[in-house]
Amino acid sequence: MAGLLCASSLEKRGVKSTVFDTGIHGLGGRMGTRVIDPQPLIFDHAAQFFTVSDPRFSELVSDWLEKGLVRQWQGTIGELEVGGQFVPFPSSPPRYFGVNGMRSLADSILSQTCMVNVVRPCWISKLEPFNGMWHLSENGKPCGQFDIIVIAHNGKCANRLLASSGLPLVARQMKTLGLSSIWALLAAFEDPLPIPTGATSFEGAFVKGVESLSWMGNNSAKLLGSKSNSPHCWTFFSTAAYGKRNKVPQENIPTATAEKVKTAMLEGVEAALGLPKDSLQRPFYSRVQLWGAALPTNTPGIPCIFDPHGRAGICGDWLLGSNLESAALSGMALANHIADYLQSGGARPEEFALGLNNGFETLGGHDIGQFSGWDSSTEANPIQAYQLST
């Protein structure tokens, strides 16, 4: 979201850009949606929904609503205590999601641009400054020359990329960022999951008291409607603590680890719903995925970072919080900052240095992100909106 909105916002200021995206299945990063044919089964396997608090983001979401790209999630969401006690959250603030999954929103953002070039899948492996330009390459293959670079990525890959880029201040800020790891389990069931007697039927729940589970969301009900006759597709997320204890290389998950995590998370579903052990129906489809760089654990609390001498910027949700709204605001802020810098002709670069020496503070919120207005006692930074996701 941060990189996509940075690119589209640069276009509004007359600046052309190229987006290099690593996604094999599509754009969007943690706005991932997986469709399994021929059923089809559909899962938002990262960001589940978002909320809105900032007027600038609200204006953007209003446009998305008008164009039919997003809609409000009317289903009940709340907190599920181990044993099956469910407490619904209020309907305010409203919750939104991409109409065909969160990835469809990412695709739609760039489909409306004409000055943004997208290269995907592409893993930029080297940034090299030469003759006043940035030369980018992927495993030795040239990928173009650019006036300014933007890093809308985090984790080990970004750190490796910046290590030899000649941007010590930018690299230091990126390395200060802490990230959680969270397991996702996608599971499709023939029959509805048994909701505890007396509990409100819910479509999403933040789980409390279960080590292997922090969230469960009914994608079929959200995306297709509760009266759909399709299989019941659920996304389950582990706690950050469970993810940390069971972390492995996410590009090469051992089969034994995948089975162990799947079993533990399904047992967590049973515990959360108050079901007897081994009584939960077996999913006819399941897949586990590790988000090794899931969510930020700390933040400098600034919209973006920019090094005018290095002609490099950073945007991302982690600069403001851990949600989709923070990502959007960060991308838009960096785009406007870069456009202002270019408009100035670069004559006074020191005036455009931003965020290169800011300290970091710990982030609060749910294990899958921040949602202002809910559980505010645990949210250190009430910016709202994303999850895994962001």
Short overview:
The protein has 390 residues and is of the alpha+beta class. 26% of the residues lie in helices and 23% in strands.
- Which class do the helix and strand fractions yield? alpha+beta
Q: What is the oligomer described by this structure?
A: single chain
Strand percent estimate? 15-25%
List low-confidence stretches. Answer: 375-390
Strand order of the largest sheet: 6-5-14-15-16-13-17
Look at the structure and give the CATH class of the domain at 2-34 and 55-66 and 101-178 and 298-365.
Answer: Alpha Beta
Strands, total number: 21
- Per CATH, the architecture of the domain at 2-34 and 55-66 and 101-178 and 298-365 is 3-Layer(bba) Sandwich
> Please, how many helices?
9
Biggest beta sheet attributes: 7 strands, mixed
Q: CATH H level of the domain at 2-34 and 55-66 and 101-178 and 298-365: which superfamily? A: FAD/NAD(P)-binding domain
Q: What is the H/E order?
A: HEEEHEEEEHEEEEEHHEEEHEHHEEEEHE
Could you please say which CATH topology of the domain at 2-34 and 55-66 and 101-178 and 298-365 applies here? FAD/NAD(P)-binding domain
Helix content: 25-40%
Which radius of gyration do the C-alpha atoms yield?
Answer: 21 Å
Q: pLDDT average, as an integer?
A: 90
Choose one word for the global shape.
globular
